[in-house]
Amino acid sequence: MSEGQQTPQTGESEDAEPGMAESTEAGERPVTSGAESVARALERTGVETLFGVQGGAIMPVYDALYDSPLDHVTMAHEQGAAHAADAFGIVSGEPGVCLATSGPGATNLVTGLADASMDSDPVVALTGQVPSTMVGTDAFQETDTTGVTNPVTKENYFAGDADSVGDTVGEAFALADAGRQGPTLVDLPKDVTTGPTDNEPAAGTAPETYDPPERADSEAVATAAGVLARAEKPVILAGGGVIKGEACAELREFATEYGIPVVTTMPAVGAFPEDHELAMEMAGMHGTGYANMAITHCDAMFAVGTRFDDRLTGGVETFAPEAEIIHADIDAAEISKNIAADYPLLGEASVVIEQVHEAMADERAADMAATGERFQEWVEQCQQWQTDYPMDYPMDEDDPLKPQFVVETVDAATDDDTIVTTGVGQHQMWAVQYWTYTEPRTWVSSHGLGTMGYGLPSAIGARFAADDDQSVVCFDGDGSFLMTLQELAVAVRENLDITVFILNNEAVGMVRQWQDSFHGGRRMASEYPWVPDFAALAEAFGARGFRMEGHDEVADVVDDALAYDGPSVVDTFIDPTEDVYPMVPSGGSNGRFVLAEEQL
Amino acid sequence: MTEGLQGPAPDERPQPSGRRNAQGIRIDPEMEAVHDPRRTALSALVQNEPGVLAKISGLVSRRQFNIESLTVGTTTNPETSRVTLVIEEPEPGIRQVEKQLEKLVNVISVRELGDDAVRRELVVLKVHGEEPDKVNAITDMYGGETLDAGPRTITVQITGDEQKVDDAIDAFRQFGIRELARTGQTALARGEEWTTHAEEERYERTQVRQ
User: Which key words are in the record (chain B) (predicted)?
Assistant: First the structure.
């Protein structure tokens, strides 16, 4: 948990008393049931918005919410609720909450929980369950929810009784936020939520057995700092943990003081301003050429809050093959899981970066007095790679519309703090490659799980977490959009100011690209012979629909769509032959990224 | 007008000569450094809550850890159980199992047992009863106990370390083994050493309470 977050702090119950007195209408609205205790527990966390879908077994909880000041957004589908909560968590830094009923409601959440689990996004899911006495009888809408969600949650709970259920929800919320963030779930049998209790839940704390490290061992820090100080070609690899751990300021100070190039993973996009001269931007499969050159040729890597996903590393045999690896993480299990850490540092990202920063100063003072410009030659090399491998796309005015041009145009037309959400596929890669991210928590995407359909529901969740003057833009693919488009009804009902650009190539483009590259062009089940008229579809939902086709109309349509105060959908007919490059083929060497299909 | 991606093709770029092995460990390209799997036992102190065993077995299965046996039972504290896992993994895999187990919220403490740990397992064997004297002799030889003897079957129990139990099973084969049930290994650290890190603290806490 970072200091910047405002979840209830651990404390004895006596300390919590003043907080309770302040809690909303506590006096007027005494707790009488398990469900009311659940609602009170949620109120105590400070969360204001819930995302969910009603249903039989969760009805008692909704009944308690009827009297609660908490806002509830009724989503069209539980998957949408989970993604909205996930995006809310990414943008706000605090757990997003989703609710669903038992059986299909709970199983519909699973994709969203798996997504949150892969990306360490803080989410709390509350699911209804059949009454305890009927559990195990294959009752109507019964599913073993804790069993089903076990592999995709940080921890899950089966609520045992009405007296403790509120405290369990408080604990689940605290645990989702503590240490390495992630999804938690509380399964709520109907007899527990309807059961009598007057228990006012205490402020939630993570369980005693969950004890994430804060400060790294100082000797290990000193050794690691020595390795960095003596390196010739160091890089910082910032992972999603830098944003999750509120360590962006520390990262920036450290990198700029010593002039160390910064590469990010995809979840860390926005952790370091991409317009900074030390920014190498994103590495990995569709990362920039210069980021991949930098990580391939570095001799020391300070990796912070990353799990070395295979889309980042390519084949591990060729990943930073000459680098001594300093790996800072809050989760000991990430150390040497995929890439062996020569110098593991366990602790919170912000703390560890500061520790290394301070230790570097000592190290330099002691051993490296005359090394002010030490890394200059390496930085120049990295900048040379930026020149050698520019991020660019071929475009002629008469060409079909280039998706990269659309992304750049929208970026130019919006403020720096604009939040971008995406689905998964080619459009996602163009959105990350051609938008210049300068602030954390503005890039909201499905990284580890690669969930097509994430874009629209996450834009809804992001909208509720964003400041009122912040724009929310969603880049989606036609394939991704078709997976969760029903959430457009929610965006209209709530009159949410979000702008969806469907980069429409009438195909599941990334699959088609792989078929062309690796399956001899046999395009099985990747091209759509027909796609809906997305602009008309948007209008049918009550949103504004736009179309754009030529380069010359982009600027005007983008302006109109952004100016509309409500949900709008821009059906963007892009060049269907456009593919995503650079590319490191799966399992390949980052240093051998290809610039075009012929190089594969 | 823009040009598109440019720059030297993959084959025209310098490539570093270093290499890692499949476990992500930097190696001397001249040498093939491979960690061979090793058989070892981990002891985990866990909270005695519903679902904890499912969480541990789920973890082992979804991360494809190579597990030989798993035993579980309560301790003197009704709130905790001890789980003993025997696994066969290369060194990095053993460390992963340890850390992934430790990460489970219901797991209090995990440790790999040393070579000198006190380890036992138990087998209950049911053999054909035609030669009771010989069965008795073998049972005595392995310090076992006869649990049930009838005209057609004799059931015995043997305890010991894995090797002894293996040997005993082999020795009983001559009578024809009808059925066999074997526990996995359960173990404690030897002497004054605590089996996992959390035990000492917990033990002292209970002493104070008493």
Answer: Amino-acid biosynthesis, Branched-chain amino acid biosynthesis
CATH 3.30.70.1150 assigned to B118-187: yes
Confidence of residue A95 (pLDDT cuts 50, 70, 90): very high
| Residue in A488, A497, A477, A458 with CA at minimum distance from that of residue A573 | A477
Q: Rounded to a whole number, what is the distance in Å from the CA of A579 to chain B's nearest CA?
A: 12
Tell me which of A21 and A255 has the higher pLDDT: A255
Select from A209, A394, A581 the Cβ nearest to the Cβ of B105: A209
Give the whole-angstrom CA distance, residue B105 versus residue B55: 10
Q: What is the pLDDT of residue B203?
A: 75
Nearest in space to A499 (alpha carbons), one of A415, A558, A412, A438: A558
Helix H or strand E segment including A257: helix A248-258
As a whole number, mean pLDDT of residues B58-78 equals 93
Nearest to B196 by CA among B29, B41, B22, B20: B41
* All domains in chain A, ordered by first residue: 13-194 (3.40.50.970), 218-388 (3.40.50.1220), 403-581 (3.40.50.970)
Q: Is the pLDDT of residue A8 over 60?
A: no
- Pairing assessment for the beta strands B26-27 and B19-20 based on DSSP bridges: antiparallel
3-state secondary structure of B165: helix
Cα angle, residue A388 at apex, residues A387 and A391 outer, rounded to 5°: 75
- Grade residue B32 by pLDDT with cuts at 50, 70 and 90: low
Which of A51, A50, A377, A345 is closest to A215 using CA atoms? A345
| Sign of the alpha-carbon torsion through B135, B140, B143, B149 | positive
Quick one: DSSP state of residue A107? Answer: H
- Quick check: A502 and A484 in contact, CB under 8 A? no
Q: Is A140 a catalytic residue?
A: yes
Which residues in B lie closer than 8 A to residue A155 (C-beta atoms)? 105
Q: Give the model's confidence band at A373: pLDDT under 50 very low, under 70 low, under 90 confident, else very high.
A: low
**Tens digit of pLDDT for each residue in A251-271?**
999 999 999 999 999 999 999
Cβ A118 vs Cβ A153: under 8 Å: no
Here the ipTM equals: 0.89
The encoded tokens of residue A444 equal 């909201």
pLDDT of A370 above 60 = no
Is A395 part of the annotated catalytic residue set?
no
CATH node for B22-112: 3.30.70.260
How many angstroms separate the CA of residue A306 from the nearest CA in chain B? Answer: 15
Residues of chain B with CATH 3.30.70.1150: 118-187
